[in-house]
Amino acid sequence: MMMGWDSVMENQHGKLVNQEKLLTDVLDQVNTQNNDIKKDLAQVLHTQTEVKLTYAEKLKQKTYDPVIIVKPKDSSQLSKQTFTTLKKNINPVTREVTGMKTLRRGAIVVECKTKEAAAKLKEEAESKLGDEYILSIPKRKLPKIKIVGLNDKIASAQMKEMILAQNQFLGENAYINIVHIAEDNRNPNRYIAYAEVDGNSYQKILKEQKLNIGWDRCRIYDAVTTRRCYKCNNFGHKAADCTKATTCPKCAGDHELTSCKATDDEMKCCNCAYAVDTLKMKLDVQHPAWSNECPVYRKRLEQEISRIDFLGQPQH
Predict the structure, then answer these.
(1) Per the confidence metrics, is the pTM higher than 0.70?
(2) What is the enclosing helix (H) or strand (E) of 127?
């Protein structure tokens, strides 16, 4: 009888061992699948982040050659004539010329390999072209940041002192210039500020994402963008200064957005439509004027970023 009971117990023990082994195998498979899912999810998120940041970040990482602007005093002169005159007098090889673009009113932009080459080109062109042309080296702008979450309206000079004193990661040579302070329309009794900073501080601040200002721990955003008018939806000016007709940003109609009845299939970007109709460009117009994927917006953003020095100090 005892041997029968031992046999039963041994049989049950064997089943338990097998079940335990099976359960262990299942758990191992689940853990493996979870790890694979985590890796796949991480890759997806990484890819999405790359896609989201690709355009703006690559523009900021892009290097732009130093330039000089050659502008004739006679505004009726064509850019072709300006280029012909420059070509007769300047050797592009010795002056390390890397490109050329035309502007309005007969002006051209000449790109050079280095700042020194641009300065020498300007000096030589001034002596050889005479008084009929105006030559200039445009100053590069500094990057801007947006400061959000201020509980008190602080004077510009005082805010600058606070930022430099309360954020040691910036260093002694940090350049901060508060250019605008206003009430935050989205958050009553709060304020926002915009500041120009040197290239090195710009990178550090965006990495830190926050600044200590007085008793506030303020969130920081990148403020490098191109202005779009909320009246006509063209770029380069604000609605308060706009002299153009009201244009809907969703369908390009002559009404405000609040009155628009267009469906998503009827969306039409007024800026891209102008480029297609007037400039004969081949662009997709089926998107609103506020879209970050708008080809005209992207071009204007690239132009704006090309004027910004993301690495240097303010020019004096």
Answers:
(1) no
(2) helix 115-129
Strands (E), 172-305: 176-183, 191-197, 210-213, 216-222
What sign does the dihedral 128-130-133-138 (CA atoms) show?
A: positive
**Residue in 259, 234, 231 with CA at minimum distance from that of residue 245:** 231
Phi, psi of 35 (to 5 degrees): -65, -40
Residue 103 tokens read as: 């502007």
- For 91-104, the three-class secondary structure string (H helix, E strand, C coil) is CCCCCCEEEEEECC
Task: State the residue for tokens 């896609």.
Answer: 51
Query: How far is Cα 316 from Cα 314, in angstroms, rounded to an integer?
Result: 6
Chunk the chain into consecutive blocks of 10 residues (it has 316) and report each block's average pLDDT, rounded to whole numbers.
55 63 62 55 46 52 72 89 88 85 86 86 87 84 91 93 94 91 88 92 91 95 88 90 93 93 93 90 92 90 78 62
Place of tokens 């300007």: 122
Residue type, 200: N
Torsions phi, psi for 289 (to 5 deg):
-65, -20
The residues, any chain, with a CB within 8 Å of residue 312's CB and separated by 6 or more, are 140, 198, 199
Q: What is the rounded CA–CA span in Å between residue 139 and residue 183?
A: 31
DSSP state, residue 235:
B
Determine the Cα–Cα distance for residues 309 and 197; give it in Å rounded to an integer: 10
Backbone torsions φ then ψ of 66, nearest 5 degrees: -60, 145
Triad 150, 146, 66: Cα angle to 5°:
155
The CA distance from 118 to 314, in Å, is 18
